[in-house]
Design goal:
mainly alpha; about 70% helix; disordered N terminus; disordered C terminus; Amino acid transporter transmembrane domain-containing protein; transport; AA_transpt_TM; L-amino acid transmembrane transporter activity
């Protein structure tokens, strides 16, 4: 009876594994990158400062491998359930938790998904609002005002159910991300060249207690886990999804290595929690904030 009640309120997430997607390989790659890459990347240099550059590199690598492996496991679970006659009873993540661990598993799955998605949404809203506030300071709007202005945009985007429809915006967001990171790295290199940099002043591993923080920040950098099934289902050729996901994660991980490492090397103990705050307040910094905000974070 309880399972029947759960079916009545389920939103199909797992039953579309056999449906034909419309997104090409390039479109899916763009959606993967914009789904995975999040604002956490701007905090990686600070994580490297707290934990040390070697610990930071290890944290990013472990987070990347773990995220990739778990995303593949999720796809494999859907494929296995789709091959079983009773798979119709499992349509949501909560249903899958219920099937594995009973009522406790179902409630726990729903709770964790709620906390994860709400936390990510709040972080995005605060981050974007802070950047907009710094760009348009003096216009009489508070940080809370920018957040309330952004909420309707986020709600509107959540009603778009087709990832292929978002692909052009995802590609543009990826271009903005790459350009913004390139500008930040440019500032890092200039800082290293002009500040009498010494590699001996940078710590490899600060303490074991700092490792969880570095790992948590690295995990935050690899977002989009909840989009796994939608990304895979949107593809025309689903059998290429694992290889495409591996290529995307490889490129993103290398980018995170360079971004976190060079950011810490440039500013050392002066590295701030958001690396853009270390940049001089000029049109370069404003360009980075603008490119990170409207598309990269909202999508």
């Amino acid at each position: 009876m309880e399972q029947q009640q759960r079916k009545a309120v389920s939103v199909p997430l797992l039953e579309s594994s056999s449906s034909t997607g419309t997104a090409s390989t390039a479109q899916t790659l763009g959606n993967i990158i914009v789904s995975v890459v999040g604002t956490g990347v701007l905090g990686l240099p600070f994580a490297f400062r707290v934990a040390g550059w070697l610990a930071g590199l290890l944290g990013v690598f472990i987070a990347a491998v773990s995220s990739y492996y778990c995303m593949l496991l999720l796809v494999q679970c859907r494929q296995k359930l789709a091959s079983e006659e009773e798979s119709v009873e499992v349509k949501t993540y909560a249903d899958l938790g219920y099937k594995c661990l009973g009522r406790t598993g179902g409630y726990l799955s729903e709770f964790l998904i709620l906390i994860s998605q709400c936390g990510g949404s709040v972080a995005y809203l605060v981050f974007v609002a802070q950047n907009l506030s710094s760009i348009f300071e003096g216009h009489g709007l508070t940080l809370a005002s920018y957040i309330f202005l952004l909420v309707p945009i986020e709600i509107g985007l959540s009603w778009i159910g087709s990832l292929s429809a978002l692909a052009p915006f995802s590609i543009f967001a990826n271009i903005c991300n790459v350009l913004a990171m390139a500008i930040v790295v440019k500032g890092d290199v200039q800082q290293v060249v002009g500040s009498g940099f010494s590699f001996r002043d940078r710590t490899a591993i600060t303490s074991l207690g700092a490792l969880p923080f570095a790992g948590g920040m690295a995990v935050y950098g690899f977002e989009g886990f909840g989009m796994t099934l939608a990304l895979e289902a949107s593809m025309k050729d689903k059998c290429t999804f694992p290889k495409l996901l591996a290529k995307a994660f490889t490129g993103i991980t290398i980018l995170y290595f360079l971004f976190g490492f060079f950011g810490y090397m440039a500013y050392g103990e002066q590295t701030k929690d958001i690396i853009t705050l270390n940049l001089p307040h000029n049109w370069w910094t404003i360009a980075v904030q603008v490119m990170c905000d409207p598309f990269s974070c909202s999508l």
